[in-house]
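Tutorial handout. Part one gives the primary structure; part two gives the three-dimensional structure as tokens.
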Amino acid sequence: MADVAREAGVSSQTVSRVVNDSPRVDPETRRRVLEAMSGLGFTINRAARALRTGRTHTIGVVVATLASVGNSRMLEAVTEAAAARDYAVTVLPIEHRRAVARTFSRLGELGVDGVIMLNEATALAEGTSSRLAVPLVAVDSPGSEAFATVRSDHAGGAAEATSRLLRAGHRTVHHLAGPESSYAAAERVRGWRSALEAAGAEVPDVARGDWTSAAGYAAGIVWASRCEVSAVFAANDQMALGLLRAFADAGRPAPTGVSVIGFDDVIDAAEFQPPLTTVRQNFQRLGESAVSALLDTIAGASPAQVVVPATLVERSSARAPE
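Part two.
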């Protein structure tokens, strides 16, 4: 650091401030110090900095599975947002409630500065956050005074999708929901039901799936044999894909034989046959919000409760009934 200070024409204390990302350095001085670091091949000794500051600049991310598109997209967004803030990410899987204590113990051993629990894993956060000695952000969790939460407006997006189908002239809308243990799935059911009730429409029984296209196909085969099923809102795009194939195999291709709307707006949703009308989750903003909420909590702010809007994306899989 003394070499960098001499090269940049500043004090060692100023170099230390730049290394620790202090706001008390003017932009021009920061530029000179960073150029000197680069020219001299200076690298930060993170272990030494952790001993001095008590922080490792590492975030723990707990996830139930990476098989679902939502979890994978969220993890990608979190790692990108963390890297932009000079934080590394350690990912730990958690398969069931019995593994909570072991996972939290492992996070303590790793010395992370804070933890983000993704989607289905957040069902384990309520009542267990006291086991963590560091701040926690739960993604897709009800609001809590104990920890920060970040979530999409699942209910609002589901209500908008359902209302869109009702306005097109469908008498009612069937719903293929996600697992009962999922907070996001429960919120999407709530939004779907509220839209039907507000319109005075019949509320059919909810079908359940496990987020996979195979679950969508299985439900679609049953519904395709029932002429009263003219519109389906699927709780995610993968299940919607299975529905589209099932109805097509039964001679009722969308949108003439059935209208289908999904949720997530996965990368390939526009390439489905037909292109899928869906509710878009802003995964990038969710990831950035989760990291920002966590770092703010680490810095001493009160736990934030962030809701990110979900918006309907119109394509070709939904229309008025024949």
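Part three, for discussion. The longest strand covers residues 58-63. Residues 202 and 263 are 22 Å apart (CA to CA).
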